[in-house]
Amino acid sequence: MELIPILSTIILVATISTFILAVGAYILYKIREGQVKVSPEQKPDYLEAEYFVPREKKEHKVFIEEAIEPKPNINSEGFEPVKSVSGKQTEAKYRVVEDLGSKADVKSVSRNQVVMPKMKFEKYSLPSDETVSKDSFHEEIKWR
Amino acid sequence: MNINQSIKKLKLHFRNEPVNNDFNGNEWKLIKRIIFSGIISIILLLVIYFTLPLTVLTISSLIEYATIVALVIFLFILLIRYFGILFFSYFYMNEYTFKPINGFKPFVSIIVPVFNEARVLQKSISSLLNLDYKDFEIIIVNDGSTDDTINVAEKFVGYQKGKYGSVKVSLINKPNGGKASALNLGIKVSKAEFVLCMDGDSILTPLSLKMAIRHFVNPEIGAVAGNVKVLNRKKFFTDLQALEYVEGLNMARGAQSAIRLVNIIPGPIGVFRRAAVQSVDYYSGDTFAEDADITLRLISHGWKIYYEPNSISYTEAPVKLQQLLKQRYRWTRGIIQSIRKHKKLMLNPTIKFGDSFILWTMFYEALLWPPMNIAAHLFFIFAALFFGFTSLIFYWWAALALLDIVAAIYCVAAEKEEFRLVGYAIIYRMVFILIIDICKAMSTIEEFLGIKMTWGKLERVG
Predict the structure, then answer these.
(1) Does residue B10 belong to any structural domain of this protein?
(2) How far is A98 from chain B (nearest CA, A)?
(3) Do residues B174 and B280 both lie within one domain?
(4) What is the pLDDT of residue B449?
(5) Which of A60, B90, B312, B383 qualifies as a FRET site for B125, CA 20 to 30 Å off?
């Protein structure tokens, strides 16, 4: 007997069986789903949820200073970072100077902020530090 | 939960979002649809009855002729689709391979919505703590679980040891409201500019976040779709699904990414720009495929969507046929609901051609292809049984199997997947795709008739 008719018969039987299996399984699934009764319930307009959030870790607040040479975009009117979506500036330009987590009661800071000890860094500022930026308008900037 | 000095408890007050859906439960609409489809069917039968005797062919010749024509048309459409996807997928891979890796690593919030995931949550969170990324937090949103999920989640709240230091893990306990509602609450609580949304049972590979986030350096990118792979393999249906994810879903996603119009950001892993999610008013709970819906809304708002093949999320696939049908039933109806929500864009390509194109491809895959495939199978069975064209079915299978084997080899090689999956390509189309297409066709009919459905929950093995 030739091979192709045998294979054709096998494929034909397999296809018909798959059809029967798929339709049968689907009907069975619908019957089972139909047995699960879901009662429609009236839901309120507003809901309440509990939010468990760890308190800010003090050791996360670190004092940092700029660790690179000033770039041409830093002018006498203050530190003006180039607005870039790459975010590389805040990532690579600083190094940790001192961790005051347990020593000082530092005010809460957001993730992108840095806490600047003013006695050290009066003469230049980060974009987030407005008060120091204002000072820099009146005084000459001196880089360490 | 034991509230100590290191953890604070807050109350969140939020709007209860409407859950599915506007499409269900309208009795009059259902009756109108049945009458309409009945009339159309009668007209078609009458046309066939009166026009058939007018043909010069005998019934036997007609069947023979139609068989050959059907075979040619079917294979032609299949080849166009396959080679179109293969071409764009290759084009994308080529571009992707030479894309420079940048150092864009902003702070990211990972939102983990969980509903009865006690068995798998531990593994999932552990995979997140092992991420090769410095600046991220984890927000677990317990969507009213009824099992032990809450206790498992509570153990993680606090600062957990990550790869590069401690990782903040928070927990939100909310009443059950669906995945969309859980994700929305998590995103609203987070303050990060980028959020990674995943499933409670997903296991992320260490590089997944780092690889996905780098694409956001382009401000036009609103979201990045990850690569979903099957976790529980070495079983008949899960292996077939593993092949389907690689050959059927990821290859197509790669092709779509070549034109920055990925049509579904998968639930198990998707990274979003917060501004993009806000611009489309967050996830919507009015469809059963919230991931497809938000993707279409992002595209319609002009955001570009990219696919990152190295951002991998392993997820549990249904093991039993019943579970598989349940999952595909929900996916199909959800996708149809999403397409219906955007039908204006689909019907008018002048508004945005890209949107219209992507919606038509979804329409073709979800609604047109399954009945075509089923009809072709039925036709060949009919021709073989009643007119003796048995050998045709062999050649037809051989052509399809060859096509699937070639595509499987390409995809398995491109994704460095298990080579044994290629073996399943022999029965992939004739068995697996036929079952899935029958389920899709049935779901389409039910959606068209407006039959009520529930979300359903896949039981996790862990």
Answers:
(1) no
(2) 17
(3) yes
(4) 80
(5) A60
Shortest alpha-carbon distance between residue B256 and chain A (Å): 25
CA–CA separation, B128 vs B150, rounded Å?
18
Distance from CA of B350 to the nearest CA of A (A): 32
Burial A42-78 (b: 16+ CB within 10 A, else e): eeeeebebebbbbeeeeeebbbbbbeeeeeeebeeeb
- Among B153, B62, B169, B59, smallest CA distance to B115 is for B153
Strand B269-273, strand B203-204: pairing: unpaired
Q: Is residue B94 scored above 50 in pLDDT? A: yes
- Whether the pLDDT of residue A85 is over 80: the answer is no
User: From CA B342, how far away is CA B180, in angstroms rounded?
Assistant: 18
Do B224 and B190 share a structural domain? Answer: yes
- Does residue B360 sit in the same domain as residue B311? no
Provide the number of structural domains found in chain B.
2
Residues B128 and B186 in one domain: yes
Please tell me whether residues B389 and B293 are part of one structural domain: no
Which residues on chain A are in Cβ contact (under 8 Å) with B384?
A: 8, 12
B220: containing domain = 104-321
- Residue identified by tokens 């501004």 is B275
Among A14, A45, A91, beta carbon nearest to B16: A45
Report chain B residues whose CB lies below 8 A from the CB of A49. 11-12, 14, 172-175, 185
Q: How far apart are CA B187 and CA B169, in angstroms?
A: 14
